[in-house]
Amino acid sequence: MTTPSDSTTGLPLPSRQTGALSHIRVLDLSRVLAGPWCTQNLADMGADVIKVEKPGAGDDTRHWGPPYLQDEDGPTSQASYFAACNRNKRSVTIDIAKPEGQKLIRELAMQSDVVIENYKTGGLKRYGLDYDSLSALNPRLIYCSVTGFGQTGPYAARPGYDLLIQAMSGLMSITGQADGEPGAGPVRVGVAVIDVFTGMYATTAILGALEARHFTGRGQHIDVALLDVAMAVLANQGAGYLNAGVVPTRQGNTHPSVVPYQDFPTQDGDMLLAIGNDGQFVRFCEAADVDWARDERFATNSARVTHRRTLIPMMSEVTRTRPTSEWIRLLEAASVPCGPINDIAQAFADEHVQHRGLRVEQERYGEAGCPPSDSVNRICSTASPLRLSETPTTVRYAPPGLGQHTDEVLRDNLKLGSDEVADLRAKGIL
């Protein structure tokens, strides 16, 4: 069998209607969040993503509830978590533990540009589905492995989870209230942020490998580890330690290097001020009718950092004199960065969020309606934030039902007849 190339996949070329990656096929063997987040990015940009799931069970996140997807009668047994990272994909059920299933995966890999998996290091080698095995069949294949700790090192065999990595990387040590404050102690970020960052880094690496393939003609193996990503996204906090020897500590909503950059109480609640330079501080003082900008203790950011314990109580006393909405109106007019501290419902109700179309509602089955095995048709998700002027992201498939596209993919991609598909299903392969 010949090795596929960009021009022989049979996929449509990039356009405004198809997306930037419409000529790319991705075989998604990943589960939970980091890998699926990556493949959803690729799918939103038009890639044909075939998501392989375990028959009868599927991706772990299909069961991570509550909350649950709803049908006409209310909540179902399908967790809403799955909808966060599986839009625009086709779901195929294949049991990769069985030789017949492994054969199907190999055949799909031979037609694919990218394979992504997040099994434990070396976990797919026993099935003949590792990088060496699949790249021998398809030298142009880009194979992305997402693990907790990477393909090498003393922790390589360990399973990795976002919470564990937040703890081990030091991220939790700088998240939460400062020691001595009420509620002090390490706190995880409210979203599995390392999984999400890992998915974004994996997306970037895959796009880089695809670009390199134009010149080398070959694919490559990508090793993306949650711990590596977590250490990288420590950003300024990591750089501060590495270059100045300063071990950062928790400081709640305050910033170690910028003041004032935090929440403040108002007459009816709280607001967020993000004053990032001296000019913005001057304008805040003018709007608040105070003369602190002329005080040498507060005239520069460095001085404000040094004297934050004096400045912040003074500011809090002033911000309590007006309601949040009045402060925001006043400060926005003065070009001072500020905003309300919304809950998620308030955030989605925000007029700007609505204008940007960040809520997407899709039908899983369309006019055909739900099959007997599935009662969920309408699903909401957050829109892709990627805005490309010439090849915009596309919305094609709702987060799929388990195995929703199995027959379609096996028929169209592998040219299997209905009898062959029925036989595989009877054997428990599908």
Automatic annotation (TrEMBL):
Q: Which UniProt keywords apply?
A: Plasmid, Transferase
What positions belong to coiled-coil segments?
A: none
- Please indicate if the UniProt record lists Transferase as a keyword: yes
| Taxonomic lineage of the native organism | Bacteria, Pseudomonadati, Pseudomonadota, Betaproteobacteria, Burkholderiales
Q: What name appears for this protein in its UniProt entry?
A: L-carnitine dehydratase/bile acid-inducible protein F (CoA-transferase family)
Organism superkingdom: Bacteria
Reported EC number(s) for this entry are: 2.8.3.16
Q: Which GO terms describe its molecular function?
A: formyl-CoA transferase activity
Which species expresses this protein natively?
Cupriavidus metallidurans (strain ATCC 43123 / DSM 2839 / NBRC 102507 / CH34) (Ralstonia metallidurans)
